[in-house]
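Entry 14. Structure prediction run on the chain below.
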Amino acid sequence: MLHPEYITGLTDGEGTFTYSYSKQVNSVGLYFGIALNIKDLPLLKEVQEYFGCGKIYFSKAVKGKFSDPTYVSGPRAYYRINKHADLFRVIRHFEEHPLHGQKSQAYEIWVKMIFYKGRMYRNDMPKMMALAAKLSEANGRTGKKEPRIKKNEQFPKNPIPSFQYDPNSRYFDPMA
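Output returned:
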Protein backbone atom coordinates (compact mmCIF):
# COMPACT_ATOMS: atom_id res chain seq x y z
CA MET A 1 0.00 0.00 0.00
CA LEU A 2 1.24 3.47 -0.85
CA HIS A 3 2.19 5.89 1.89
CA PRO A 4 -0.42 8.69 2.29
CA GLU A 5 2.21 11.41 1.90
CA TYR A 6 3.28 9.85 -1.42
CA ILE A 7 -0.31 10.12 -2.67
CA THR A 8 -0.38 13.78 -1.60
CA GLY A 9 2.87 14.47 -3.47
CA LEU A 10 1.68 12.59 -6.55
CA THR A 11 -1.50 14.67 -6.52
CA ASP A 12 0.48 17.90 -6.10
CA GLY A 13 2.30 17.02 -9.33
CA GLU A 14 -0.15 15.04 -11.46
CA GLY A 15 -3.59 15.33 -9.86
CA THR A 16 -6.57 17.57 -10.45
CA PHE A 17 -9.53 18.82 -8.46
CA THR A 18 -12.03 19.89 -11.07
CA TYR A 19 -15.57 19.81 -12.44
CA SER A 20 -17.61 19.30 -15.56
CA TYR A 21 -20.75 21.19 -16.50
CA SER A 22 -23.72 19.80 -18.43
CA LYS A 23 -25.87 22.55 -19.89
CA GLN A 24 -28.52 20.03 -21.02
CA VAL A 25 -29.37 19.08 -17.43
CA ASN A 26 -27.94 22.23 -15.81
CA SER A 27 -25.67 20.24 -13.52
CA VAL A 28 -22.12 20.42 -12.21
CA GLY A 29 -20.20 17.19 -11.65
CA LEU A 30 -17.18 17.33 -9.37
CA TYR A 31 -14.26 14.97 -9.52
CA PHE A 32 -10.73 14.20 -8.39
CA GLY A 33 -8.30 12.65 -10.83
CA ILE A 34 -4.71 11.66 -11.47
CA ALA A 35 -3.42 11.20 -15.04
CA LEU A 36 -0.21 9.29 -15.77
CA ASN A 37 1.48 7.60 -18.68
CA ILE A 38 0.06 4.13 -19.34
CA LYS A 39 3.38 2.68 -18.12
CA ASP A 40 2.41 3.81 -14.61
CA LEU A 41 -0.90 1.91 -14.58
CA PRO A 42 0.21 -0.26 -11.61
CA LEU A 43 0.77 2.94 -9.60
CA LEU A 44 -2.74 4.19 -10.40
CA LYS A 45 -4.14 0.82 -9.33
CA GLU A 46 -2.40 1.25 -5.96
CA VAL A 47 -3.93 4.74 -5.60
CA GLN A 48 -7.33 3.23 -6.41
CA GLU A 49 -6.74 0.55 -3.78
CA TYR A 50 -5.76 3.19 -1.23
CA PHE A 51 -8.98 5.18 -1.68
CA GLY A 52 -11.13 2.06 -2.16
CA CYS A 53 -13.20 3.70 -4.92
CA GLY A 54 -13.01 5.34 -8.31
CA LYS A 55 -12.31 4.05 -11.81
CA ILE A 56 -9.38 3.99 -14.19
CA TYR A 57 -9.90 5.18 -17.76
CA PHE A 58 -7.59 5.09 -20.76
CA SER A 59 -6.87 7.54 -23.56
CA LYS A 60 -4.84 7.46 -26.74
CA ALA A 61 -1.81 9.62 -27.44
CA VAL A 62 -2.67 13.31 -27.88
CA LYS A 63 -1.03 15.59 -30.45
CA GLY A 64 -0.54 19.34 -30.24
CA LYS A 65 -1.04 19.94 -26.56
CA PHE A 66 0.55 22.58 -24.34
CA SER A 67 0.76 25.27 -27.06
CA ASP A 68 3.19 23.14 -29.05
CA PRO A 69 1.75 21.66 -32.28
CA THR A 70 4.60 19.12 -32.45
CA TYR A 71 4.00 17.76 -28.92
CA VAL A 72 2.77 14.14 -28.74
CA SER A 73 1.86 12.55 -25.42
CA GLY A 74 1.98 8.83 -24.86
CA PRO A 75 -1.15 6.81 -24.10
CA ARG A 76 -2.57 7.83 -20.72
CA ALA A 77 -4.23 6.12 -17.78
CA TYR A 78 -6.54 8.33 -15.77
CA TYR A 79 -7.80 7.55 -12.26
CA ARG A 80 -10.99 9.40 -11.40
CA ILE A 81 -13.37 9.62 -8.44
CA ASN A 82 -16.65 11.36 -9.20
CA LYS A 83 -19.33 9.87 -6.90
CA HIS A 84 -20.33 12.55 -4.43
CA ALA A 85 -20.16 10.20 -1.42
CA ASP A 86 -16.70 8.92 -2.46
CA LEU A 87 -15.28 12.43 -2.76
CA PHE A 88 -15.46 12.70 1.04
CA ARG A 89 -12.76 10.00 1.23
CA VAL A 90 -10.55 12.32 -0.83
CA ILE A 91 -11.36 15.25 1.46
CA ARG A 92 -10.55 13.18 4.54
CA HIS A 93 -7.18 12.18 3.05
CA PHE A 94 -6.15 15.75 2.18
CA GLU A 95 -7.32 17.11 5.52
CA GLU A 96 -4.99 14.62 7.23
CA HIS A 97 -2.18 14.95 4.63
CA PRO A 98 -2.44 18.49 3.20
CA LEU A 99 -1.18 19.65 -0.16
CA HIS A 100 1.74 22.09 -0.09
CA GLY A 101 1.89 23.46 -3.62
CA GLN A 102 -0.23 25.67 -5.84
CA LYS A 103 -2.83 22.91 -6.10
CA SER A 104 -3.89 23.55 -2.50
CA GLN A 105 -5.79 26.66 -3.68
CA ALA A 106 -7.78 24.62 -6.21
CA TYR A 107 -8.44 22.01 -3.52
CA GLU A 108 -9.91 24.59 -1.11
CA ILE A 109 -12.33 25.89 -3.76
CA TRP A 110 -13.22 22.34 -4.83
CA VAL A 111 -14.09 21.38 -1.24
CA LYS A 112 -16.40 24.41 -0.98
CA MET A 113 -18.10 23.26 -4.19
CA ILE A 114 -18.63 19.74 -2.82
CA PHE A 115 -20.26 20.98 0.37
CA TYR A 116 -22.26 23.59 -1.54
CA LYS A 117 -23.51 21.02 -4.06
CA GLY A 118 -24.75 18.81 -1.25
CA ARG A 119 -27.22 21.45 -0.11
CA MET A 120 -27.90 23.65 -3.14
CA TYR A 121 -31.08 24.33 -5.05
CA ARG A 122 -31.26 24.72 -8.80
CA ASN A 123 -31.64 28.50 -8.50
CA ASP A 124 -28.28 28.49 -6.68
CA MET A 125 -26.50 27.46 -9.89
CA PRO A 126 -25.03 30.94 -10.52
CA LYS A 127 -23.26 30.74 -7.14
CA MET A 128 -21.92 27.28 -8.02
CA MET A 129 -20.72 28.56 -11.40
CA ALA A 130 -18.95 31.47 -9.70
CA LEU A 131 -17.04 28.93 -7.61
CA ALA A 132 -16.40 26.92 -10.80
CA ALA A 133 -14.87 29.99 -12.44
CA LYS A 134 -12.57 30.44 -9.43
CA LEU A 135 -11.62 26.75 -9.61
CA SER A 136 -10.81 27.08 -13.32
CA GLU A 137 -8.62 30.08 -12.55
CA ALA A 138 -6.85 28.22 -9.72
CA ASN A 139 -6.25 25.33 -12.14
CA GLY A 140 -4.70 27.76 -14.65
CA ARG A 141 -7.48 27.56 -17.22
CA THR A 142 -8.27 31.23 -17.74
CA GLY A 143 -8.40 32.96 -21.09
CA LYS A 144 -8.11 29.81 -23.18
CA LYS A 145 -11.74 29.52 -24.26
CA GLU A 146 -14.93 31.49 -24.22
CA PRO A 147 -16.81 30.79 -20.99
CA ARG A 148 -19.60 28.27 -21.38
CA ILE A 149 -21.79 30.24 -19.00
CA LYS A 150 -22.63 33.82 -19.81
CA LYS A 151 -22.47 36.23 -16.87
CA ASN A 152 -26.15 37.16 -16.97
CA GLU A 153 -27.50 33.75 -17.99
CA GLN A 154 -30.60 32.77 -16.03
CA PHE A 155 -31.19 29.30 -14.64
CA PRO A 156 -34.50 27.58 -13.90
CA LYS A 157 -35.97 28.36 -10.48
CA ASN A 158 -37.10 24.77 -9.81
CA PRO A 159 -35.54 23.81 -6.49
CA ILE A 160 -34.03 20.39 -6.01
CA PRO A 161 -34.25 18.85 -2.55
CA SER A 162 -31.40 19.53 -0.18
CA PHE A 163 -28.95 16.71 0.37
CA GLN A 164 -29.40 14.90 3.66
CA TYR A 165 -26.92 12.50 5.23
CA ASP A 166 -28.86 9.45 6.30
CA PRO A 167 -26.82 6.93 8.34
CA ASN A 168 -29.29 4.22 7.26
CA SER A 169 -28.75 4.90 3.58
CA ARG A 170 -26.69 2.46 1.53
CA TYR A 171 -24.71 5.52 0.30
CA PHE A 172 -23.71 6.67 3.76
CA ASP A 173 -19.96 6.42 4.38
CA PRO A 174 -19.24 6.45 8.12
CA MET A 175 -15.54 6.98 7.31
CA ALA A 176 -16.25 10.27 5.53
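Residues 159-164 have pLDDT under 50 and may be disordered.
Filed with the rest of this week's runs.
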